[in-house]
Structure formats: structure tokens, C-alpha cells
Amino acid sequence: MAATTNSSTNWKVNNWHWVEKNCLPWAKQYISEQLSGLRVETEGVVLASTDVSGFSGDADINQRKGKLITVFDVAFNVNWNAELAEGNTISGRINVPEFMHDTDSDEMVIEVTTEVQSAEAESMRLLVVKHLVPLMKSKLTDFSGEMIRANGKDVHIPKEEMKGHPTGTQYKPKPVSALDSAAAAAAETKPAVPSSVLGSLATINLNVEFVCSAADLYSTLLDQGRVQAWSRGPASIKPEVGAEVKLFGGNVEGKILELVPNKKIVQTWRLKTWPANHYSTVTLTFEEGRESVMLRLEQTEVPVGEKDLTTKNWKGYYFDGIKAAFGYGAVGL
């Protein structure tokens, strides 16, 4: 069993506790222990995993509303050998580009390659896909539960210290309707409009409540690992003025203009389907209360024809995604 290290962080703001622990060292050791030395004998061939390499990503455990939540997004390789009856050995690699907290182990995307190209190597590769990969996936079925059992005590707050801790119901994202899907598809396929025919501009104002601290929400919107967790994909963002922002496969881009830690974020923002070189300005302000934080969004210079879809995207892709990933659920206003 992978060993644990106590590297948790404990905040207490307005009688509201936030505790989290970086579990990446534990995750690396656990996955290495689980996936190294696996062995399957089939069709006169011995398939074996040798070691785990190229490990990277993020893995955290958090306590929110009295519950332990795991958030992870890691990538790694598993090296393998196939020993044939005649004594020959074929080697290769199992590449796992993304293993995330919201993806079951049996849904992992996996690529199996060989060191040499030959008919014999290809037949061994297919055996690995058929026999060794399913065994590997089965070893990670309870990864989240094991993370909690191994590290949960480091972020546990005793019940007697939980006075004032919010106990709202867990947020459950609304299923995407066919209408929403059609609108999003239409927006992605619509050609960019020349800036010379931009037309009228609109302003979007939204107020959304999150059951967390301003510090947590501020970090959730700027930390690359957290952003990738709630956006469910690669993201480019840094908590620095001048940093470029790219989210959702490049469909959203912009630049950080102003940062006031835990109080305000100002950035340019555009969809790739907008008129060329046209950016709106987004101002996010954080108003912390006793048990929650109110996020106030103002987005100016939005092409008037894009206002409704942009508003829907803030709610569906940003705010609902954050609440679902981190358990910050509260009612949007």
C-alpha cells in the first residue's frame, strides 16, 4: 500500500473550514504498486507489466461540507513485455494520457504500442489489449476510495469543530437538453463574422453563489489543475497579469488584465466564433459572506447576437462545472 505524507492545508474563514491535501506523491506510488508486476499467461505467451513511467498531473483530496472529495487528473505509461514460448521477447508501452476523477477506470482511453514493428509484435500488442489492459483497469477501479482511505485522516475535521459548517444539498448538474446541444453545435459551426459588420454590443451581468471561501473560488478559476478538473479538458491559464487563457479546446481565449487576490479578476474573453480580433472584458468580483461567496460577473462588449448563448455557456460550462467538480453547490441568482 502506498505510504502517505501529511501535507494538508487548513483554512478557517468566517467559521467555515477548507482543508485539502496534495496526494500526487501517494497517487504516483499507488499506481506504480498496482500496475507493476502484473502477469497474464495466454496462448503460450506470458504478458507482464514491468514498471510505470512518465507520471504527471494533479491529485488532491478535499473536505467540503463535511464530505471528502477526490479530484485527480493524471497521465502515465506502463511498460510491458511478452515472453514467447520459443524464448523471444517483445516489449512495448501502454500509454494512459488521462485518468480523471469523473471517468471510470473501464472508460480510460489507452494506447498500446510496441518497440518494433512486425507481424509478431502486432499479435503481441493485440494480446496486451485483450488481456493485460483489462487487468490493469481493474486494479484502478477503487482508486478514489483508496485515496480517501489512505489520506482522509489528514484532512478530517472533528465533528465538534464543524460548528457553522454549511450543510446544503449536493449540487447535481441539470442534464444537457437537445436544445442546448443544438445551440452549442450551431455556435461552433457558425463562421466568424468580419469585424467590419460587428453590429451592436451587449453587457451580461450574473450573480452566482458558491458554498466555499473566496480564496477557494479564486483559486478554482485560476489554477490550471483545478480549471482542467471542472472544464474536463486541457487548459492554459496562470494566476498572473498578462497570462494567456485558453479553455475548452481553444474555443475560449483571452488574457488576464488585473488580479486582486480573492477579490477580483479582470480578463479579456472571446469565443473563436466571434468576429476576428474582437474581445469582451470580463470582471469577476468576490463578495465573501459567513458561509458562502457571491460571485458577480460583468461582461461588456459582447456581440448582441451572442449574448444569450454566452450567458448560457457561463452557467452551463463554468458555474455548473465548478459546482459539480468541487461540491460548491448553491443556488444561482
Characterise this structure.
It is a single chain. The protein is α+β, with helices and mostly antiparallel strands and 333 residues long. 27% of the residues lie in helices and 36% in strands. A hairpin with a 2-residue loop joins strand 4 (45-64) and strand 5 (67-83). Helix 6 (224-231) packs across helix 7 (307-326). The two termini are 46 Å apart.
Question: Topology of this protein?
Answer:
Elements: E1 8-13, E2 16-22, H1 24-35, E3 39-42, E4 45-64, E5 67-83, E6 89-100, E7 111-114, H2 119-138, H3 143-151, H4 178-189, E8 201-210, H5 214-222, H6 224-231, E9 244-247, E10 252-260, E11 264-271, E12 280-288, E13 293-303, H7 307-326
Antiparallel strand pairs: 1-2, 2-4, 3-4, 4-5, 5-6, 6-7, 8-13, 9-10, 10-11, 11-12, 12-13
Helix pairs in contact: 6-7
Helix share, percent = 25-40%
Overall, the morphology is elongated
Order of helices and strands: EEHEEEEEHHHEHHEEEEEH
Spatial gap, N to C terminus:
46 Å
How much is the average pLDDT?
A: 81
- Specify the structural class: alpha+beta
As a percent range, the share of strand residues is 35-45%
Report the uncertain regions: 4-18, 162-198
Quaternary structure: single chain
* Number of alpha- plus pi-helical segments: 7
Q: What's the total count of β strands?
A: 13
Strand count, sense and barrel status of the largest sheet are:
7 strands, antiparallel
Whole-angstrom Rg: 23 Å
What are its keywords?
333 residues, alpha+beta, 7-stranded antiparallel beta sheet, 6-stranded antiparallel beta sheet, 36% strand, elongated
Structure, briefly:
This protein has 333 residues and is α+β, with helices and mostly antiparallel strands. It is built from 7 helices and 13 strands.
